[in-house]
Structure formats: structure tokens, C-alpha cells
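User: C-alpha cells for Phospholipid-transporting ATPase, please.
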Amino acid sequence: MSNLHPQQRPDTFQNSSSQRSISSNSWRASVDFGSKGVRHGSRSGNDSEGFSMSRREINDDDARLVYVNDPLKTNEMFEFAGNSIRTGKYSVITFLPRNLFEQFHRVAYMYFLIIAVLNQLPQLAVFGRGASILPLASVLFVTAVKDAYEDWRRHKSDKIENNRMASVLVNDRFELKKWKDIQVGEVVKISADETIPCDIVLLSTSDPTGVAYVQTINLDGESNLKTRYAKQETLSRIPEKDIISGLIKCEKPNRNIYGFQANMEIDGKRVSLGPSNIILRGCVIKNTDWAVGVAVYAGRETKAMLNNSGAPSKRSRLETHMNQEIMLLSFFLVTLCVVVSACAGVWLRRHQDELDLMPFYRRKDYSEGKVENYNYYGLGMEIFFSFLMSVIVFQIMIPISLYISMELVRVGQAYFMIRDDRMFDASSNTRFQCRALNINEDLGQIKYVFSDKTGTLTENKMEFQFASIAGVDYSGEKTEVYVEQGGYNIQVDGQVWRPKVKVQVDPKLLQLSKTLNDTKSSKEIYDFFLALAACNTIVPIVVNSSNPNEKLIDYQGESPDEQALVYAAAAYGFMLIERTSGHIVIDIQGERQRFNVLGMHEFDSDRKRMSVILGYPDSTVKVFVKGADTSMFKIIDESLNLDVVRATEAHLHSYSSVGLRTLVVGMRALSVSEFDTWQTSYEIASTALMGRAGLLRKVAINLENNLTLLGASAIEDRLQKGVPEAIESLRKANMKVWVLTGDKQETAISIGYSSRLLTSKMSQIVINNNSKMSCKKSLEDALITCKKLIDVTSATDDDASSVALIIDGTSLVYILDTELEEQLFELASKCAVVLCCRVAPLQKAGIVALIKNRTDDMTLAIGDGANDVSMIQMADVGVGISGQEGRQAVMASDFAMGQFRFLVPLLLVHGHWNYQRMAYMILYNFYRNALFVLVLFWYVLYTGFTLTTAITEWSSVLYSIIYTAVPTIVIGILDKDLSRKSLMAYPQLYGSGQRKESYNLKLFWVTMVDTLWQSVVAFFIPVLAYWKSDIDSSSLGDLWTLAVVFMVNIHLAMDVIRWTWLSHASIWGSIIATCICVIIIDAIPVLPGYWAIFILGSSGLFWICLFGILVASMIPRFVVKMFMQHCKPCDIQIAREAEKFRNSMEVTRSGEIEMHR
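Assistant: Done. Predicted C-alpha cells:
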């Protein structure tokens, strides 16, 4: 039995025996429509093509011409891309130049490259030429190795992919051929469970009706089966026996995986091709023995490869702010260099008469008979060279290692987020995914959360609840006895077939559906459930059960709503058991009836409905339509029965009020002339190569009118576990949660209450308007009302954020992208909750942009479906839910998870930790490097501004690589200022990130002042201690090196909250490593300062100086920390103390931790 799904069926209306179009006369005379093709239109999506283009034919210059089974002729005029793919970025030849070019896109790298080049000039050589290149070379090398490894893996994967084998028709025989050798125009045969090697137009399949089941999980992440169809004209051709030839004129390669427009000329006829006739590279054939198709796009031109790019790159807000501080450091660096060069100029001018013989400077060279000047270029050039040499000496003021440290810390943070079992979804067996490593810290600063409803707050597992049929409400108590007995079932070949999902039924409606007769109410119930069973794109698949005598019918489809409706129809005795390309078989109360599917217009976001044309066994033809109430009541003929319409509207309101999703069902009979008119219009539209979707939509609109109202359905989409608690926690964390949904207003409000988004204390402002003027007036009135409400709640010390705004998509049409946006923003920003109903996907993105473009607050969007992609990519942080609607949202997101409730630990715990760690690490890196530079600066001031350095060049190089790098990274990954328990218990603690308490301009300047003090202590204590001694500069340099390394590591140790063995090992290990390196450097005879550390360390004064430096430098910092923690503690410090002493309930008089709002 072929169980088929009429998604984008063959677009010609033909008889299988004659292969000719059926005329209206033949339709009138015959009832055998079994093999007639299905009309399709209004493909789901937002198509913007105008009707004016719909009839325009594409010329040869704008189209791709593919000659079936003739690759030579196909590629004769234009050599199309071969099927070899290459995802690797580099080759052996291009790796070095291209990788370096990409790396030097970072301005900081260019800065260090210029420094290294300047140091190579003899006039400016401060460090050894090799040592000056080492820091930049190390960073470039590490990054290059990482990039090379990743690219090697891509090349390895490409090689495996390109060398896979496929059956290709060669000389009327199918022969195995490597994928990379397949050409456009060749005929390819794919067997069951094999992957499609290129984009192919389906010619024939093992199924006599031409259907093929495909799984697109490699393409769009969706695991449900989809159906593709071969045209009747090619269906009966056997490639090995029949000559296959023809011309396909198709659109040029593009990224739209859901669209395809083409025409095929075969046997003198021209037929249209659509998305249902093409199978894309990467799809897998399922439940089909074999399929044959012709390659139309190959290699890099396939839709899969054209879409082989990630989501738009996003940049961390913290990193953006960090660049401002780097600019300040750059200005500070230039200031130091100007001071040194100016002082050097003054010094040279003052001693210009002494320069010839002055020790350590001697301008004259008396070593030869002829006295000449050394390299002296005049006062002006000497000042200029002093400036450039200062830049070289003080170069590490800009921390090159910070970029690498940040990347490594983010990787470590991502690892712990992924491995967090509290964000593991057992129901779908999915872990948290970190798809964008560069914005981890943004998770700790979110102010606005924009959420989809269906599948994000709810489970998107629909369950049929109530029905309204012909104005009668069937919403009574459900029976479980019928379900326990197994529900409705049928006998097939001695086996019991029953639906896979059991549905609770209304006893009264069940009894009425069983006693079908000629009464009006019985016919209405019959038509209603027939519409539920037939008007859909469901694929009935028979699967085995644990009982060998029982089979289960699994209804697979792209829409959970449709699945619920079909399961409901089956429970009431209307069981869909078979679907082919031209008919469906429904078991109706034990009697199997065959209906010819003569046409279908699928759901789209413009019409918000779908329709199917059924040919009855008695030769009558009817069109069934189902869709949203807003679109359906416009096309219902109210004159037929106004009372039924009014009663149904009342029932819909009551269903929506309890949070149920509703659909309206209608029907009308088609006369012969009406059907012929539709058929003609459809064939014209379906053969238009450009603008086809727009014209097909117009055909659908002309068909769907003057309907008889059959009734309405109500489906429950239950909230996910933990959603109310999660929203409550987010709101306590001072986040504004906005819900953007396409559902009805009543449904959204009901879900809002059940999810605790809305509360009984809130005042609601509702805006539902149909014109720009009315929207303007509503916004003005709402602003006045909102201000009054906030003034009242503020005066009573109540929650000031007690206003909820509810607005529909129609109103947003007149507000977004107009001058009214500003008023909407002003109103929305004053509300605690915003609920947007009936919004389109682009409107969701527009709402996010409304806040993102007008505030500096961080935004997060979370959704689970393809309609949420625009919103997810617009927000600062995008989160995808691995739900029932495929994986488009996940593939476009920065982070992905299985349940909405995981957002709480992600933001409140990991987001807080990530932000605190990264903010501290950036400030610490600024301090660490500035301290070293300032010590060098003080030394320059005491050595005639000659820019000689006491610290060896190797210690200068190793300072940021070995001496101090590792502790920064380890603490940035592992340190925790608060435990998970405290962060989850007190969501208000999240506010520290929103208020930027850990990283701001004030903290930066405080850090720089502390750095200045520590540099003065580190430099002047040894200078004063050894003032009249004969100590050499190398010994002092070793002392300063050790002192600075000890200081920065002890500084870090003072700020560590959670000590681990790795923290101890990194901090104390770095100090030990520094000592070892200094000893090794001083033990090498060819290097300056030979044996200096051994002589220095043998004196007690050295150890006194070292200890004095550490104590004196840290005392101010220690005093300030103690004062702030005891006299002006912040929320985090209070919570930390409460954690430490386990008396959080006694911290304040009220027994709760007092938080800043």
C-alpha cells in the first residue's frame, strides 16, 4: 500500500492511461479520477513577487538550460560547476598568504607588526630582532595551527564526500561513478537509504504513482519525511530501455531551499516543475526502493552548498566597550612616548657640547685615523627616533595576549555550559549547544527577552480537545473508556490497524459520528470530520507494534496541528489510511471510501489557510478549506446560516479564553464550469516561470470564497515544564519578557496568565486598530493611561512595573517603520510585559529592532521555528529551541537548548559567571601590562631618556606569554563569585551585569590609578635601597621582573573567590616558572646580565626589597577592598557573605537579601 502525502503534487491534470489532459466533458462523463494529478499553489512562505511578473517568461539568458541525459550538450555553451565540493578555505599554496591576510584584519595585530618592523631598523633596534618578533609570531603561529587543523578536517571530509559512489546512466546502463565526476544533465539513480549526490529533478520512482519519500535532516534539520513527485510524462519511462530526452529550463542557482521554478519540454509538451519535483543534495531516500532523476545543479551550485554559511557574525558588547579602553590606553601610550621624546630632546640640547665625549653616548668615533660621527642624525631626527623607540619599548601597553586569552576562556566556558546536566533535555536527548563562542559574556547582561509562544513556551505537541460543528458546541467531559479499549481500529489482512496516538473523545459526538444517516446534523458531522481527515499534508505510515497482530498508523507531517486533527478524525471513525499522488483512502466507520485529490493550495502566511479539492465517488466535487478565523470568516457566506456563524464565533472566543488553538473549517461544492475555470487558471499559473507563487496565490483566493461554515476545532498546546517558574525568575532578574506570537489574542492572553507572564494585579492596555489614525490615537491614550498607572503604583510603593501592553499584528502594520514607532517604544518601555498577537515573522524582527536600535540594553530572542529566524538573528543573542518545528531556529541561533526553562540557568548562572569572569579578565590584563610598561617608563626617566632597559629582552617577551598568561585563563574559566544555588535563589543578583558593575569606565580608571601606585612602589623601593651601591642594571632588572610578576599574581590571588587545585597550580606555578626562566636566562653567558640573579639573590637586601614591594603595593588595594566590603557592599558581596556564613535569612531584618532594583 502506498501511503502518500500530497505536498506539491504533479501540476498537470491527466489520465494515466492516455497521458492527456482531461477535458471538462471527460470529467462530466467519468468518475475515475484515481490517477489525476494534484494542483498546488500558494506555497508556504512570504513571497513578495508581484502579480505583474507572474506571466512573464524567462528567456534563455536568464535561465539554465539542462538537456536530459545529455551532459555534453548541457555544458556546451556554459560549463556548469562540476559536482566536486570544497568546503576547505585553503590550499597548500594559499594557506600562508591567505591565513596571514585574515589574521591581520585585527588592528592590534597590525600594530604589533609595525612595532616588529620598526625594531628591525638599526636606528631603532631596542630589543634583539628575533625577540621583538616572537610575541606576534607566537600568536600568529598558534592561530595558524588551529586554522590549519580545522581546514585539514574540512579537506578530509570533502575527500570522503567527493569519492562516494552513485549510479549514473552511461550508454543506456547505470554505472557506478564518483560523486565528483557527476555532471549537470546526467541521469542518476538513488536507492533506499542513500544520499542524493546533487540537486536532481525527479523523473521516476519505484512507486507506480511517482512518489518518493525523502528525509531532509541534513539540509534543514527536520527529521519528518517529506514527499517528492515525478511527473506523469516521465513516470513510466524506464531509463535502461526507453530513450530519455528533454529540455529543462530552470532558474539559476539560488539559496532558496523551499523554492524551485522550472519548465520541462518533453515529447513536444511543456510541463511545469516546482519544489515538489526536485530533491536536493544531502537528502536521504526513505521508504522508496529507488528513484531516478536528472542533475540540474551540481557541486558548489547546489542549494545545500549555497546555504553552507553560518548565522550572521555577532560581536560581544563587552569586547566593543573594551575597544574604547584600548583607545584610551593607546592615547596613554602616545603620551608616554611624547614625554620621553620631548625630554630626550631637551636633554640633548642641554648637553649638546658634551655629546662628543660623554660616556655611554660618545658621538665621535676616534677608533680610526679619520674622526667621524657615529649614527647621529641631528636633533630633530633624534627626537623622532626616540619617539619610535619609545613605542617599541612600551608596546605591551596594548595587550596582544588578551585576544588569545579571551578566545581560550570562551572555549572553556562553552565546555562547561555544554556539559551542564541541568540544561540536558532527557525527552529529546539533547544537550545545550554553544554555536557562537564570541558572545558568551553577553548572556550576563540581557535586559529584554523576546519569546515565541508555540513550541517555545508550549510543548507544540497538540492534543485535540473540543469541536464546534454547525453551531453546536461539543466541549463536554471526555471519556477514557474508549481510549482504554484502544480507540477506533480497522481490520486489514487479518491484522488490527489503529492510530499510533490515542485521543480522548466526547461521548455524545462519538455516538453521533457512528450513527451517520441522511439527517442534516449527520451530514454536517460527516463533512466536518472528512475535512479534518482530508484537508492536510499528512503522510500515513504503517509501523510495527509490540503486538505482531497489530499495526500502528503513524501520521507524519510538518505541522503538529494537522497531526492532531487527523488523529482526532481517526478517533471519531474517519481514519486516513492511504494517500497517493492522486487520491486518498479514508476508512469511515468501517467502510473504505476513495476520494480523488484534484487539487491543493497549501497554507501560506498571506492567506492563512489551505484548501483541497476532492472528487467524490458520486462524481461531485467539493473544496474544503481550513484556516485561522480571521481569514476564514472573510470568505464564509454568512447569508447561508448567520446563526451558525454567530454561535461558532462565540465558541471560538470561549476556546481561546482557556488558551486553546483554534481553526475554522468550511466547504462548498464546485460546479463543472467553476472547476474548469479553476483548472485553466491553475495551469496558466503553474507554468509561469517567474512570479509563479504570486499568481498561484491569486488562483487560490479566487477559489476560496462563498463557503459554508462546517465548524471549528480547538487544540491544546500545553505549557512546557517549568515555564511559569522560569518567567517569574526572569522578571525578578529585572528582565522584561515580551511574547511575540501568531496566535489569537485570547489564546495568547490565556497562555500569558498560565505562564505567570500576566498577573491579576497588572493593568492591561490593549491596542487593536485597523488604520494609522486610530493607532496614533490609541498610542496617545495608552501613554496617558500608562503614566497615570505608574504614578499611582509609585505613590503607593507598589510594583511600579504593573502595566501590560497587548497589541496585534494589524496595528503593528501601521506602526512599525513609521513615525508612530517612537510612541510605541515610549509606551512599551514603560510596560513590564508586552504581548504581541497575530504577528508575522518580519514583524517579530521589527519589534526586536524597535528596542535594539533605541536603547543600549541587551536583547535576547528565543524561538523554535522557521518563523522565528528573523527575530533570532536580529537580537543581540539568539537562542533556538530544539522543538517539533524542525531545526531552522537552531541553525540560525547563537545558542540552542531543549526547553525554555533552561534559559534561567543559562542566564542567571552561566551568563552571570561568564560576564563577571570576562570583565575581570579584561581589566586585569590592562593592569598587568600597564604595570610592566610604567616600570620601564620610570627607568627611562633615570637613564638620560636613552630607552635602554634594565629588564632583559627575553623577560620582556616572556612576560605576557609564560610569566603571567596561564593564571588569567584558568581563573577566567573556573572562578565563581557566587554558587549556582545563590544565583538561582536570588535572581536579583543578575542585575550586576545589566548595570555593568564589573566593567565600566570608572573601574578602568580606578584600576589605572592602582597600577600607577604599584609601579611607583616597584620601581622606587629598589632604586632607593641600592642608590649608592655598585649594583648593575641587569641585577636591578631581575629584581623588577620578579617583583612585577609576584605583584600581578598576588593581586590576582587576592581576587580569586573559589580556589581549586588548578587555580593554585596556575598562580603559584607561574611564579615558580618565572624564577626558573630568570635563572636560565642569567645562566647563559652570551646574554646580558650573566650570573646577575645568583649574585643578587645571595644578599639579604634583595629579599627585603622584594617583600617590601609586595606589602607596600598591596596595602592600598587591601584597605579599599575591606572598606568597600564592610561599609559599602554590593549585592554580590552581601550574597557571598551570606553564603559563607550560611545565615542568608538573617542578613536583613526582613530575612531576605536586600537587592538593588
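User: Anything notable?

Assistant: The longest strand covers residues 458-469.
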